[in-house]
Amino acid sequence: MPPKAVAEVTIDIDPATYETQNVHAIYDTIASHFSSTRYKPWPIIAKFLSRIPDGWIGLDSGTGNGKYLSLDRDGKTWMVGLDRSINLLKFAQNAGDKAREVVLGNVLDHCWRTHAFDFAISIATIHHLATPSRRVLAVQRLLQAVSPKNGRVLIYVWAIEQDELSKRIIPQGERNETRTGQDVVVPWVLSKSNIAQNPKSPRDSREEVYNRYYHIFAKGELSALVSQAAAGLGLTIGSVVGQPSSTQGVEILQDGWERSNYYVELRRWSI
Amino acid sequence: MVRLVTHNLLACHAKDCNTNNFPLVFQNVQLEIREAEFNPGFIQSFLPKIEWNALVKTAQELGDTSLPIDQPEMIDDELLKNLHHVLFEIHIVEGAMICPNCKHNYPISDGIPNMLLAEHEIA
Ligand SMILES: [Zn+2]
């Protein structure tokens, strides 16, 4: 695959409409090709899922083709996959050649019994939301989905610090991206053979380019987002140790970088 | 696939619909029974998280009366097998889920429930 040039963008329309056009519609179009390239789990996520206790149920918010739904420790844990792309869900439905539970929905909605889950993961999803307030809301939805007692959350987003092996070229913008991150589009090139599998796409052109929107996260931006989300829900940020009584909070267990991505692992607690 | 294990987690999230918005009521459903691997250990640890009344009511509405009305304290093999069937082997392929409160209709197509709302319906 050739290097992918990334172009900076400014969002000047309603963010929900922008996401519909520049994220959801594109995933529905490229679903088949995209899914064929997404099969290898990231190590941090595989490790997180391998340590989930027996009998825990989880939400994979932004499940895509459902590749993480299969990491269920042979049925000792169990996950529901939520995604906005119906065509990706058709792959997720049979991830790992097993019947999986999937739901068509938006990660900004709360279509669950509150605190119904033991854990939630959000992998390469929140970076597709077009404003800071929408990204905060997405984190709040994850915190609301899990148990207030011991619920775990893992969030994984695209980082401004790129891996040496990364194939993407990030433009040097005018603004101070090191603090606020950067809004960009990343081209997805759909070749004719892939288009042919989708009867709705034009057949006459040799290839089609689809520019997916991403917010590239700056260093520290993800944990700041978590703090803001927690504060908005009245949750204390930090460890349970030394807290006054009758408090609910969120502890950041891990805050790191892996292969061009930032991640945080969170634990909810209450006393 | 929508199975009762997922249905037991879903709730209506339409604007201003905050009470009596669970469980959603199946309507005009097309079912498929598919055998699944029996995993009693998982069911046992999952049991405390189930909304029992909602599960029994919904199973009955779909024609399965194998579960007792009151959640038993003793968990025997028969109960685990019945729970396994109700939670993991009944697939709802087509139909809809209706909110008991605001009557919002969440369609199910090809085994995938659509929980999206129009912009003006979102809280
Ligand atoms: Zn409702």
Automatic annotation (TrEMBL), chain A:
Cellular component GO terms held in the UniProt record: cytoplasm; nucleus
Keyword match Aminoacyl-tRNA synthetase: no
Stored SUPFAM superfamilies: S-adenosyl-L-methionine-dependent methyltransferases (SSF53335)
GO biological process: one example: tRNA methylation
UniProt entry keywords in alphabetical sequence: Methyltransferase, Transferase
GO molecular function: S-adenosylmethionine-dependent methyltransferase activity; tRNA (5-carboxymethyluridine(34)-5-O)-methyltransferase activity; tRNA binding
InterPro entries in alphabetical order: AlkB_tRNA_MeTrf/Diox (IPR051422), Methyltransf_11 (IPR013216), SAM-dependent_MTases_sf (IPR029063)
Methyltransferase type domain: residues covered: 59-144
Pfam families with a match to the protein in the record: Methyltransf_11 (PF08241)
Keyword Transferase assigned: yes
PANTHER family named in the record: ALKYLATED DNA REPAIR PROTEIN ALKB HOMOLOG 8
Name of the molecule in the record: Methyltransferase type 11 domain-containing protein
The organism of origin for this protein: Agaricus bisporus var. burnettii (strain JB137-S8 / ATCC MYA-4627 / FGSC 10392)
From TrEMBL, chain B:
CDD domains registered for this protein in UniProt: Trm112-like
One of the GO biological process terms: tRNA methylation
GO molecular function: protein heterodimerization activity
A Pfam family recorded for this sequence: Trm112p
UniProt family annotation: Belongs to the TRM112 family.
Description of how the protein assembles with itself and partners: Interacts with TRM9.
Protein name: Trm112p-domain-containing protein
